[in-house]
Write a structure and sequence with these properties.
By secondary structure, the protein is an alpha/beta fold. It contains 16 helices and eleven strands.
């Protein structure tokens, strides 16, 4: 087996590419945030400043948006799922989603007009729970297919939202294809952040839903970030954040670094090839970063990232595990953050770039100096509690395991 190691590809052509990103602009993010604020459980998630860590790593600031606090679901995914479902309902009602409030969507009149709907998706857990939660809020049904290796805890949390859910014997991308077949066969509505020809509206709405995070961050930050590290699976969240901040800051866009697991590095491969084609990863993709174990890029996400991501890094398993441990046991004065494997991936990678002498040329080229103001997003909490404890308490997945 090939030894996992850090690798980087510099997106040198990003400065010359200016892809269409108006669908991720400030006005669209404002609309998404206004919609989400209509839910009774809505609150801005914290933007945590890790000042002691920043001082130790010799940068000006490190801040992390903590999505483990989102809607009581411990992950950001519900932002995309709920906004996409709302837009689909608006389309079926012949209305503009911008004029359709949460209260109106939840009304008995709307339910009567819509009839019984079933939303279907494939997920390792967080997205599926967001779809199931939204369907339950609307009095509708959800069916969720999970790839092999998914945690039983995540399965049971999805079922607790009233969804029909099962762990399949397929990898993530095959589970997506299976969900699509079942949608076509049964007249269900597919809610997936992977786009393909003929299926782009819902993935686009999902990306717009994610911009609620960007909108909140923009309001919470006192200074513009100089660097943003974003983890990626299919690339829809990373693309949404890259597009939003590129719109907001224009020529002062922060340096954007995309982070993927070595075992599921489809965006890294696509950037490295730079031949105009999407490059996929096949097989089991048995990374601990289950939320990032995606082999096929989202075309909409990549269309943004190819123009606005400055670098893409593939990282070993221990980078995410180290990120979890650092956030769980902070330096005195810093706030503790509970981050799952995928949630800590970009943060953990960033700390390695700042700490490892072998990566000093990357640090220098990225301009990670004493003036750097770094932003990361913790996209999930301990949604697989046993694995969280195995890593944080029992020392599972360290750099020394690979040497």
């Amino acid at each position: 087996m090939e030894r996992e190691r850090f690798e980087i590809v510099w997106n040198e052509k990003a400065a010359q590419r200016r892809e269409e990103i108006s669908f991720l602009n400030f006005a669209q993010a404002e609309k998404a945030q206004l919609f989400h604020s209509g839910f009774s459980v809505y609150q801005k998630t914290p933007l945590v400043s890790l000042d002691s860590l920043a001082q130790m790593l010799q940068v000006k600031s490190i801040q992390i948006k903590d999505e483990s606090k989102r809607f009581g679901l411990h992950a950001f995914k519900v932002l995309g799922a709920s906004y996409a479902i709302a837009n689909e309902i608006a389309r079926r009602l012949g209305k503009d989603a911008a004029s359709l409030s949460v209260a109106e969507i939840l009304s008995e009149d709307t339910k009567r007009r819509l009839g019984e709907l079933t939303f279907v998706t494939a997920t390792d857990g967080n997205h599926g729970r967001g779809v199931a939660w939204t369907a339950r809020q609307l009095g509708q049904k959800a069916v969720v297919y999970m790839p092999k290796g998914s945690a039983n805890e995540r399965l049971e949390r999805i079922r607790a939202e009233g969804a029909q859910a099962e762990i399949t014997d397929m990898n993530y991308d095959d589970a997506v294809r299976h969900a699509q077949k079942m949608a076509e066969r049964n007249g269900w509505i597919m809610v997936q952040d992977t786009a393909w020809d003929g299926y782009e509206d819902i993935p686009r709405w999902i990306m717009q839903g994610y911009t609620t995070m960007g909108y909140e961050i923009f309001q919470q930050m006192e200074e513009r970030p100089t660097h943003i590290f974003l983890q990626a699976g299919v690339g829809s969240m990373a693309g949404a954040m890259a597009g939003f901040f590129a719109n907001v800051y224009g020529m002062q866009k922060p340096i954007i670094v995309v982070v993927e697991p070595c075992k599921a590095d489809c965006l890294f491969r696509t950037a490295k090839a730079d031949d105009g084609r999407l490059h996929c990863v096949t097989g089991d993709m048995d990374t601990i970063m289950a939320g990032l174990a995606c082999g096929e890029p989202c075309s909409l996400g990549w269309d943004v990232l190819k123009g606005y991501a400055d670098a893409l890094i593939r990282c070993p398993e221990y980078a995410a595990a180290d990120g979890m441990r650092i956030l769980s046991a902070p330096i005195a004065g810093d706030t503790r953050v509970i981050a799952g494997e995928s949630g800590a991936a970009a943060f953990g990678c960033m700390t390695h770039v700042l700490r490892e002498s072998a990566l000093i040329t990357w640090k220098q080229k990225l301009g990670l100096d004493e003036n750097a103001r770094i932003l990361c997003i913790n996209t999930e909490g301990d949604t697989d509690r046993q694995n969280y404890l195995d890593i944080v308490w029992n020392g599972k997945y360290t750099k020394y395991d690979t040497e």
